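thought: user wants a sequence for this fold. calling inverse folding tool.
action: design(structure=
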């Protein structure tokens, strides 16, 4: 990489709290364009907090540090501005939006992202073709995406829906918060396939996961272990396997440093 290259995501000395409780305690993370990074860690270590803070969810207060997307600070930007700038978050627990039809929801979202890139809104028929084609590609049942967003969807269907949104929105940075948890093997493979197909030089992905399972299908460039609001160890894909074998206690006990 050239010295002048700007990382797609740069998290610098990030401190964040929720309800005055410090959760992230000085987190640094650099994700270059085209890379996939996995964030692993025990329950409660702050993985979802990191994902939500990158997306700008208002419950979290950033008390110090910065988050830069493609060189521009996101800190002062509202969640919708971040989304238009190219940040996508697939939620650990996708929300149901009764009465909001998936089709309309995605049309508005895709047009908003296009507008930001100085592109015109897609014609209805053109959008519909993309919508239907993408549903097929990511293997989300076509009747589901004709309904209200996530309403009455099973857990696995919601997660597949998140991959559908990812594929439709073509973000610069996708953060997937435990998109793999609770999935059966077919859904897990479908999710992994979407991630692999979305991999490209101008897109970065952060895959947050408690378990190593999805990393059998998606090979990350780097793996980071988050413990108590800080990244305590980073490595290549082999680190995930090591954690799978030896558990997080191996890292949290401090033995992880000796290799
Ligand atoms: P992870 O995704 O790694 O399991 P989270 O980011 O969800 O961890 O949570 C990090 C910590 O923040 C946990 O200790 C959790 O209990 C705490 N936390 C989450 N939400 C709140 C809240 N509303 N008030 C206080 N603490 C919270
Ligand atoms: Mg979580």
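)
observation: tool returned 259 residues.
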């Amino acid at each position: 990489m050239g010295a002048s290259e700007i990382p797609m995501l740069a998290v610098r000395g990030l401190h964040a709290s929720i309800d005055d409780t410090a959760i992230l305690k000085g987190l640094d993370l650099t994700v270059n364009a085209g890379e996939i990074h996995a964030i692993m860690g025990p329950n409660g270590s702050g993985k979802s907090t990191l994902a939500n803070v990158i997306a700008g969810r208002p419950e979290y207060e950033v008390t110090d540090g910065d988050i830069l997307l493609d060189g521009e600070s996101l800190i002062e930007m509202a969640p919708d501005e971040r989304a238009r700038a190219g940040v996508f978050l697939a939620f650990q627990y996708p929300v149901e939006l009764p009465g909001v039809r998936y089709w309309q929801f995605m049309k508005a979202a895709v047009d908003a992202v296009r507008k930001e890139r100085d592109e015109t809104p897609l014609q209805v028929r053109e959008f519909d073709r993309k919508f239907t084609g993408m549903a097929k590609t990511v293997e989300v049942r076509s009747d589901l995406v004709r309904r209200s967003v996530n309403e009455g969807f099973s857990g696995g269907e919601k997660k597949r829906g998140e991959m559908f949104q990812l594929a439709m929105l073509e973000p610069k940075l996708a953060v997937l918060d435990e998109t793999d948890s609770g999935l059966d093997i077919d859904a897990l493979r479908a999710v992994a396939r979407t991630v692999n197909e979305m991999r490209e030089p101008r897109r970065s992905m952060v895959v947050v996961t408690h378990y190593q399972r999805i990393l059998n299908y998606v090979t990350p460039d780097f793996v980071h272990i988050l413990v108590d609001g800080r990244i305590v160890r980073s490595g290549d894909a082999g680190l995930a396997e090591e954690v799978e074998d030896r558990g997080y206690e191996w890292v949290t006990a401090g033995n992880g440093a000796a290799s």
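thought: summarizing for user.
answer: Here is the designed sequence. The pocket of adenosine-5'-diphosphate (ligand 1) is lined by residues 18-19, 21, 23, 41, 43-49 (CB under 6 Å).
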